[in-house]
Automatic annotation (TrEMBL):
One function term, GO molecular function aspect: ATP binding
SUPFAM superfamilies noted in UniProt: P-loop containing nucleoside triphosphate hydrolases
Family membership noted in the UniProt record: Belongs to the ABC transporter superfamily.
Low complexity compositional bias, start-end: 1-26, 35-50
Chain ranges of the ABC transporter domain: 67-319
Gene3D superfamilies: P-loop containing nucleotide triphosphate hydrolases (3.40.50.300)
UniProt entry keywords in alphabetical sequence: ATP-binding, Nucleotide-binding, Transport
Region (Disordered): 1-59
Family annotation (InterPro entries): AAA+_ATPase, ABC_transp_ATP-bind, ABC_transporter-like_ATP-bd, ABC_transporter-like_CS, Oligopep_ABC_C, P-loop_NTPase
Name of protein: Peptide/nickel transport system ATP-binding protein
NCBIfam families membership: oligo_HPY
Pfam families: ABC_tran, oligo_HPY
GO BP term (any one): transmembrane transport
């Protein structure tokens, strides 16, 4: 993360308990609860964060790659029939994603709800089984790991969820929540040392020692997210996938939690994949941004470049919806309203998946050939046949007739 954030650094949240909404992705939270099934005394890995500083100078993390995702696919079968169950089709939630995340950087992943962000994050951590593709984490191919080796590798990759209330077990005290993961990975060495570690963990997320004996419902939304962060940190991960980490929080608390993440990254050398549907959230904390549409990336660039010169029509539309504080700029800039709903990922459009809503759609290629995510210079990648023509103004925008979208195949 570069130091583009934010307004406040106080450690205490000002929100009140129970204000957050529960509109969260609650899929498979249990699975992800620090995969604490069974203690493993042998797994006493002592690795810490990589210790490498984040790209605080504004550079984008160097070329030291921590995660490589190659052609990742996660397809969910659609089952029909009661007596004889059959697979009637697939939801192509993630359908061919290539990306790399460099050590110490924050990669922001954005796109509208349902485009596959959570599934990508979960696939990367093997919390959902990929249908195809490869995931290489710190030179190890984790896509083929199984059983105990997979479980151990999870220590280095942790997830923070959108809704801390549903991702924290209400029957467990904070102490038990934090110790669970440490124990599962053999990191709870002795009572004294563990206690000291717990206090240190709480302190690092701005919570007092007295929090240890409390239960999740006794905290405010922001404080609960701090507990979720402490739980992830407890096992000393290298990578944290933060799935909409502030979406369920009051606006006043969002910046505090984002600042905390940033501060922890700098101190511990963490690498982040931050998922958000809100471009404003991602902008402030990301070094690089990937924009997703219907299961794949349509554009990727450094945060500054993405905002200065978005090239994909979908990114242009997303950005045009974000208000700009400068009234002159606000008045002059192009507003692009997208017509039509996001098509179903069970029945994605042919060719360019955005062609049903694209105001620059052309008569050739767009509805027949799926554009590759290609480098248009300086690491800026775009999946559009006409990116350069649009940028140079050689083709212009037109009205889009909304198409009727069938719910599924
Ligand atoms: N376990 C699942 N089974 C079937 N479909 C799923 C499952 N999880 C997600 N989906 C579908 O996959 C698509 C992508 O979902 P998701 O990754 O949650 O998107 P996002 O996080 O961007 O909102 C959606 O259409 C969603 O309904
Ligand atoms: S390939 Fe065609 S439909 Fe797709 S974004 Fe580019 S111009 Fe639009
Ligand atoms: Mg999601």
């Amino acid at each position: 993360m570069t130091d583009k954030t934010a307004t406040t650094t106080e450690a205490t949240d000002t929100d009140t308990a129970g204000t957050d909404t529960a509109g969260a992705d609650t899929v498979g939270i249990d699975e992800a609860r620090n995969d604490a099934a069974g203690a493993d005394a042998a797994g006493a890995e002592t690795a810490t964060g990589t210790g490498e500083a984040g790209p605080g100078d504004g550079a984008v993390g160097g070329d030291d790659v921590l995660v490589t995702v190659e052609d990742l696919k996660v397809h969910f079968p659609i089952k029909r029939g009661i007596v004889l169950e059959r697979t009637a089709g697939y939801v192509y939630a993630v359908d061919g994603v290539d990306l790399t995340i460099r050590r110490g950087e924050t990669y922001g992943l954005v796109g509208e709800s349902g485009c596959g962000k959570t599934t990508l994050g979960r696939g990367l951590l093997r919390l959902v089984e990929p249908t195809g593709g490869r995931i290489v984490f710190d030179d190890t191919d984790v896509s083929t790991l199984k059983g105990e080796t997979l479980r151990k590798s999870r220590r280095r990759m942790q997830m923070i969820f959108q809704d801390p209330l549903s991702s924290l077990d209400p029957r467990q005290s904070v102490e038990s929540i934090l110790v669970e993961g440490m124990r599962a990975h053999g990191l709870d060495s002795g009572k004294e040392a563990t206690r000291a570690r717990l206090v240190e963990l709480l302190d690092s997320v701005g919570l007092p020692e007295s929090a240890l004996h409390k239960y999740p419902h006794e905290f405010s939304g922001g404080q609960r997210q701090r507990i979720g962060i402490a739980r992830a940190l407890a096992v000393e991960p290298d990578l944290i996938v933060a799935d909409e980490p502030v979406s369920a929080l009051d606006v006043s608390v969002q910046a505090q939690v984002l600042n905390l993440l940033e501060e922890l990254q700098q101190r511990l050398g963490l690498t982040y994949l931050v998922i958000a549907h809100d471009l404003a959230v991602v902008r402030h904390i990301s070094d690089r941004i990937g924009v997703m549409y219907l299961g794949s990336l349509v554009e990727e660039a450094s945060s500054d470049e993405m905002y200065a010169e978005p090239m994909h029509p979908y990114t242009k539309a997303l950005l045009s919806a974000v208000p700009v504080p400068d009234p002159t700029v606000e008045d002059e800039r192009e507003q692009i309203l997208l017509t039509g709903d996001l098509p179903s990922p069970a029945n994605p459009p042919t060719g360019c998946r955005f062609h049903t809503r694209c105001p620059w759609k052309q008569d050739t290629l767009c509805d027949t050939n799926r554009p590759e995510l290609r480098d248009v210079g300086g690491g800026h990648r775009v999946a559009c046949h006409y990116a350069e023509d649009i940028l140079a103004g050689r083709i212009s925008r037109h009205e889009v007739e909304p198409e009727l979208v069938h719910p599924d195949a």
